[in-house]
Amino acid sequence: MEDALRKTMTAVSGRQLDDALSDLGWLDMLDEMPDTAIPLVFRLLGETGAHAPVLNDVVLRAAGRDGGGIVPLPFAGGSWVVWERTDEATSALSDDLPIHRVSRADPVPLGAGRHALGWWLVGTSRAMLALARQHALDRVQFGRAVASFQAIRHKLAETLVAVEGAEAVLLAAAAEPDDLSFLLAKAAAGNAALTAARHCQQVLGGIGFTAEHELHRHVKRALLLDGMLGSTRELTREAGARLRAKGSAPRLAQL
């Protein structure tokens, strides 16, 4: 299944991918085995750089509604957006995604959506790390591959630690699901993606800031996904406020 999904996501994106996932039984997978379907599909979206409006399905299903439609979603800064099921991109938030701002809407369950976005961010982070690692191996300065420089190694290692840590938090949240666990998992994944974007861009140097290299697409995608359903900064503050009001912190993972 993973190979088939990866092949499909490499070939098509947007509405075509939305239709292809539907043909592959995405909604049935979401109903029957969400713990497998969500990490697999959203991680591969990040790794391949493809996109599809399937976050709608996750949120709709969590709200007890039929998939295949759209639903207003909260975005960073107190705004709301809609991820349309079309290929008509808007420049309001992204130049390649059909997302546009809408007026404030009724609250929707966010836990499952944050779980899905967490895996998408982890996949995007791994894609950026792979690009930076390959560049470090290929790029030669002073007669040596830059991968041999300690500063480069530190950047790549710090990125890997952040990504592995975020993935561990996502797995722990799925094992004992609740709203706070998914909130923290999304925050950890967002932090990992922002760390990856910063470090990998530095590893690539000047080329990492241009449209000539693939990295910039993943960086922009990471920034957008971080804002969906609450940014890393907002979610961290919300978690702190909740725990301060409660006066204690729950055990989120059995160590």
TrEMBL record:
<dbReference type="GO" id="GO:0003995">
    <property type="term" value="F:acyl-CoA dehydrogenase activity"/>
</dbReference>
<keyword id="KW-0285">Flavoprotein</keyword>
<dbReference type="InterPro" id="IPR036250">
    <property type="entry name" value="AcylCo_DH-like_C"/>
</dbReference>
<keyword id="KW-0560">Oxidoreductase</keyword>
<dbReference type="Pfam" id="PF00441">
    <property type="entry name" value="Acyl-CoA_dh_1"/>
</dbReference>
<feature type="domain" description="Acyl-CoA dehydrogenase/oxidase C-terminal">
    <location>
        <begin position="110"/>
        <end position="232"/>
    </location>
</feature>
<dbReference type="GO" id="GO:0005737">
    <property type="term" value="C:cytoplasm"/>
</dbReference>
<dbReference type="InterPro" id="IPR050741">
    <property type="entry name" value="Acyl-CoA_dehydrogenase"/>
</dbReference>
<protein>
    <submittedName>
        <fullName>Acyl-CoA dehydrogenase</fullName>
    </submittedName>
</protein>
<dbReference type="InterPro" id="IPR009075">
    <property type="entry name" value="AcylCo_DH/oxidase_C"/>
</dbReference>
<dbReference type="GO" id="GO:0033539">
    <property type="term" value="P:fatty acid beta-oxidation using acyl-CoA dehydrogenase"/>
</dbReference>
<keyword id="KW-0274">FAD</keyword>
